[in-house]
Amino acid sequence: MNSRSSFLLFLLFQALLLAAASTTAYPSVVDTGPTDCSLSDGDLTPIRREVYDNGRIIDISHRFTTDMPAWESDQGLGQFLWLPKSMKNGSLANNSEMKLPAHTGTHVDAPGHVFDHYFDAGFDVDTLDLEVLNGPGLLVDVPRDKNITAEVMKSLNIPKGVRRVLFRTLNTDRGLMWKKEFDTSYVGFMKDGAKWLVENTDIKLVGIDYLSVAAFKDLIPSHLEFLRGRETILVEGLKLDGVQPGLYSIHCLPLRLLGAEGSPIRCILIK
Ligand SMILES: *[C@@H]1O[C@H](CO)[C@@H](O)[C@H](O)[C@H]1NC(C)=O
Ligand SMILES: *[C@@H]1O[C@H](CO)[C@@H](O)[C@H](O)[C@H]1NC(C)=O
Ligand SMILES: *[C@@H]1O[C@H](CO)[C@@H](O)[C@H](O)[C@H]1NC(C)=O
């Protein structure tokens, strides 16, 4: 059986699974509601959503906040937004400015992140393939007691033909993306896990639920395995809380930042 037909079989299997589960409407995806809004006037309270259209569209990007975790920082992201032109002091409109490390929050890595010659050659986020960043893919849970090694990758039995996988780990259970302090004990890929994925699967989009796909211990070696071939796209800092594992249509769009090896990215899942 070729990989395309095995993937079709797999899709069929997933569709049956999803049909069986369709009565439970993701009760754990909680709409945080308007609680963090500063306006209190009833009619002027914006709605902040995690899901749209009764749960059919799931936002898996984190909201940018001053308290979100930032790489190797105890203080979180800190101020990233300013209002140099304000209606309060006479401007015709409010115009904010922002300053963000390119690898903040939910973001994507381009090959230039860990290969200087790719950086110099221009393999920036503007060159990433939108076809890879958009299409059918799986959300899978990985074992909670290990980092993602070759052994773990083998045990997941991800069928050939699957090109996009979001890996949910202990990071989600620990709520690490909701904690201000950067935590080096997050779960990620070990070098052998990254190498195994690249050599033995068709996965080109790798998503994970903390700021790096690579375990801190294997930070650079894992990134090198993933990005050497310039075919794998890494999406980091995903918000996978309360989403059921299974097959989704994944949609991720980075900014077209010329010369940047990383970019904030908006990612959604559509059932
Ligand atoms: C207007 O107010 C903002 C703060 O709200 C300040 O950053 C900015 O410099 C002010 N602009 C002028 C022209 O006073
Ligand atoms: C304009 O900026 C002020 C802060 O100076 C803010 O309170 C107000 O909500 C803003 N107005 C709009 C329409 O966004
Ligand atoms: C994963 O690796 C990190 C070091 O990068 C370590 O601190 C952590 O305990 C490991 N997690 C698990 C679940 O083994």
TrEMBL record:
<dbReference type="Pfam" id="PF04199">
    <property type="entry name" value="Cyclase"/>
</dbReference>
<comment type="similarity">
    <text>Belongs to the Cyclase 1 superfamily.</text>
</comment>
<feature type="signal peptide">
    <location>
        <begin position="1"/>
        <end position="21"/>
    </location>
</feature>
<keyword id="KW-0272">Extracellular matrix</keyword>
<dbReference type="GO" id="GO:0019441">
    <property type="term" value="P:L-tryptophan catabolic process to kynurenine"/>
</dbReference>
<dbReference type="InterPro" id="IPR007325">
    <property type="entry name" value="KFase/CYL"/>
</dbReference>
<keyword id="KW-0964">Secreted</keyword>
<protein>
    <recommendedName>
        <fullName>Cyclase</fullName>
    </recommendedName>
</protein>
<keyword id="KW-0732">Signal</keyword>
<dbReference type="InterPro" id="IPR037175">
    <property type="entry name" value="KFase_sf"/>
</dbReference>
<dbReference type="GO" id="GO:0004061">
    <property type="term" value="F:arylformamidase activity"/>
</dbReference>
